[in-house]
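Appendix B, Record 12. Input sequence as logged:
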Amino acid sequence: MIKKIVTITALCIPTLAFAEKQPQRPAQTGKPQGLSVGLGAVGSSGIYIGEKTEIIPVPVIAYESERFFVRGLSAGAALYGDRVFSVNAIANVNMMNLDVGELSTRQLAEKGISKAQLEDRDRSVDLGVEASMRKPYGIISAQALHDVGGASEGTELRLNYQYFWQIDPRLSLIPNVGVEWLSDKRANYYYGILNSEVARGVDAYRPDQVFIPHVSLGANYVINEKVNVFGVAMQKFLPNKVQDGPLVDQSSQTNFYMAVNYKF
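Logged structural output:
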């Protein structure tokens, strides 16, 4: 738990990718938004055996200019953009990881596995591109990412549709649906059994490439021209190939995030 908080605080960014789904007004208006800072809290229900739901306080920093940006777990540079279509080069921190020490010894033993046979799964640092198209009926976006940090060395593709529903001048809702595709290397690393673990006696299991759909609902409330409150909850639905993994004991995962931001 302490290791997670230290890592997140050092990054000074929200820990969940869905925090990036806040409205990106610079992309719509072409005007730089500047710097905003805030304090937030993130939570995630565990999917591995014995993991518990955690809520962690985090500092939040976001920056927007005509060319460069930091948005939650992503940073990047604009390659092309107009009021309808944009393409960015991005660097992304994926917070998916497994800490063997947090797993249930009893539940592992029921499957004939000990913690000594297992290895942690590290977070990945990804590089890639994203493209988005903005229409009156919503925003369609896609990302292609590859792990260059040496964790899984795998690839992930993401496709999302979101809509900004302005309830009144202060309150907006952001529903979102999407799907993630994980390559063999990425899926096997996080949801399967590693070759080194097989060598220690754990039965081999590899889900290979998987599709993981999700839905989310965000809300943004403007207190004044400097301060806003943002929150979002996401539900990921794990396919059978993931659920059948010996280290996974959930059929879905819930993530949530909330923050108060101050714009300079």
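The two ends are 32 Å apart (CA to CA).
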